[in-house]
Amino acid sequence: MNTGSTGGRRRLPLSLRRRAVPWERQRPTWREARPAVIAEALKRARARPSGNWYVVGASRDVRGGRPLARTVAGQEVVVWRDAGGRAVAGPGICPHLGAPLRDGSVRCGTLVCRWHGLALDGGSFAGWEPFPAHDDGVLVWVRLDAVGGEPPLDAPVVPRRPAPARALSAVYTGTGTCEPEDVVANRLDPWHGAWFHPYSFVDLTVTGAPDGPAVPDEDGFTVEVSFRVAGRLVVPVRAVFTAPGPRTVVMRITEGEGVGSVVETHAVPLGSDDRGRPRTAVVEAVVASSDRPGFAVARGAAPLLRPLVRAAAGRLWRDDLAYAERRWALRATGRFPG
């Protein structure tokens, strides 16, 4: 990809599209987006180990006087921080009379049930047994061996990220009526980007895709794409999509502005709704970095920027969850053509 500057980086991150074409006149990608390629990539992702680890939410959401609560595959889970600031987790049902611990209060690192005051410090107590928890600095994970059914791992498979000291991170969470594989399949179809999200992506070309058996380090989709800023102003990059686990897809910028920045998409099964349909949470972490001097200012304004990043992710996922939900609905009724 031509970055238009000496040393492989533009002096300014923006570029002007000189040969912009209307949405309907862009090159069709449906022939390249072969269902078999997407299906095989999904199959390989689902075969990779997770060690029974599930993302619960953002690290910065585990704080204050209330626990972070999530239902994973029908199992209520609560996470909070003990007196030392360490993330601890366990069942969200009080062992005394079944009170919802999500409504409890955290006092000096102890979770106190609001029904009768049973207090939990994160250790085994009164029939309550903790779950292994892991805080990677951006996301909090919980290991649920009874749910996952795999050989457990001591820690989750956390994708490589930019160093925290030079990165800005934000986490978006959304839910949809589908299964985790439908979310993963969406991310393993990069061909839809400029057609389905023209407000964000233009001039998208998939320059490399796995075809046949592949090893994890080579099992990726390489994409050249421009992020739309305003009008014909864009930021061109090269990115690679990989699936390091059965419920995770990572987009990593490998060339252009923000090299090394990642977008991690984690699909978390929640359980079934009152109609028996599966519900899945999308927990997406954006971890951005840049060696431009101005990026330090952006990191300083992180509290103001995070809502904007989440809003941008939310706009994309309104479309992509509709894609995932449609895929599940067709699969569930035997009509999915892929």
From TrEMBL:
PROSITE patterns the UniProt entry points to: RIESKE (PS51296)
Alphabetical UniProt keywords: 2Fe-2S, Iron, Iron-sulfur, Metal-binding, Oxidoreductase
Domain Rieske, residue spans: 53-142
InterPro entries xref list: Cholesterol_7-desaturase, DUF5914, Rieske_2Fe-2S, Rieske_2Fe-2S_sf
Protein name: DUF5914 domain-containing protein
Pfam families: DUF5914, Rieske
Record PANTHER family: 3-KETOSTEROID-9-ALPHA-MONOOXYGENASE, OXYGENASE COMPONENT (PTHR21266:SF60), IRON-SULFUR DOMAIN CONTAINING PROTEIN (PTHR21266)
